[in-house]
Amino acid sequence: MRKDMLMIDGLQYVNWNRQLFKEAQKSGVHTIHVTIAYWENIRETLENIGTWNRHFINNSDLIMPVHQAADILEAQRLGKVGIIFGFQNCSPIEDDVKMVEILHQLGVRIMQLSYNNQSFLATGCYEEQDGGITRFGRQVIKEMNRVGMVIDMSHSAEKSTLEAIDISERPIAITHANPSFFHNALRNKSDTVLRAIGESEGMLGFSMYPFHLKNGSDCTLEDFCMMIAQTAEMIGIDRIGIGSDLCLNWDYKTLEWMRSGRWTTSVDHGEGSADKLSWPEQPVWFKGAEDFHKVAKGLEDHGFKEVDVAKVMGRNWLSFFEKSFSGSLIKS
């Protein structure tokens, strides 16, 4: 396994500080898509972007923003961690399609159309009825395509996801989820969705979040790599990457915020246990960014060729972002 292998994480939600930036930089991960909004409105999102701007100033020796795919390679060259801004919900744009361009100008490059619930744009995976992409959603997809913002359907329901793939002029991403054939969680994706991602030249990022793994926290690296191999056979080696969904340095109240936001006055326990008020424990082979090399070695041990390991660990995301962040290239 090459020590200079490009490594990109398609999704993390970390309560960042300088020590965690140091650990990420030391790990060899070159770029991370970071969540900067779940349920926040536009003002709260601007506050979060302002906080990140201070991070870039105060930790300029460790991190840098990624606005174009070329910035990923520059981060690798400089030995820094590239940071891609993303939303796990569409709440920051509120009811105004013009916010897409404004937020893109502020560095946002990825946005989910829904987070578990019905949004203004699409249906979330926890709803009983899936109405698909809304009228507003169609306009937002068109605007995201125009400016170069990736459509992410990780937390969206099936009909909405398939319609987004069909409507979008660019390939979409599922940045952090696993196949339902591996583990039948509500947020994992069916064979139909996986094949649609493959046929449309989209991307699937495999998640290490325990509730999306077979046997949860006890999932083995061997089983995880077998899942990747089976998915590669189904949709192609060029369509897959890692989106670890790594969550670090948060208390349980933050987990409640992720699930419940402001839409309920009670606690939505989601896929977690209501009896254990804590974050789920990570599998032993992936506790943090420092374990990315373990995943690469696991793929190698499973029989993946070196070139294919490199694709899964980062090269596929780079190719996808080269097309997605550009203002010119669209899906044929």
Walk me through what this model shows.
GO terms for molecular function: metallodipeptidase activity. It holds the Pfam family Peptidase_M19. This is Membrane dipeptidase. It comes from SAR92 clade bacterium. By secondary structure, the chain is α/β, with parallel strands linked by helices. The protein has a single domain, classed as Metal-dependent hydrolases (TIM Barrel, Alpha-Beta Barrel), CATH 3.20.20. The strands form two sheets. Strands 1, 2, 3, 4, 5, 6 and 10 form a seven-stranded parallel sheet that branches. α4 packs parallel to α5, α8 packs across α10 and α10 packs across α11. The chain is globular.
Brief overview:
One of its GO terms (molecular function) is metallodipeptidase activity. The chain has 332 residues and is of the alpha/beta class.
Total number of domains? 1
Just name the CATH architecture.
Alpha-Beta Barrel
**DSSP strand count:** 10
How would you name the CATH homologous superfamily? Answer: Metal-dependent hydrolases
Helical proportion? Answer: 25-40%
Count of separate DSSP helical elements = 11
Strand % is 5-15%
Distance, first to last CA: 35 Å
Uncertain parts: none
CATH T-level fold name: TIM Barrel
Task: For this entry, give a set of tags.
332 residues, alpha/beta, TIM Barrel, seven-stranded parallel sheet, three-stranded parallel sheet, 11 helices, 10 strands, 13% strand
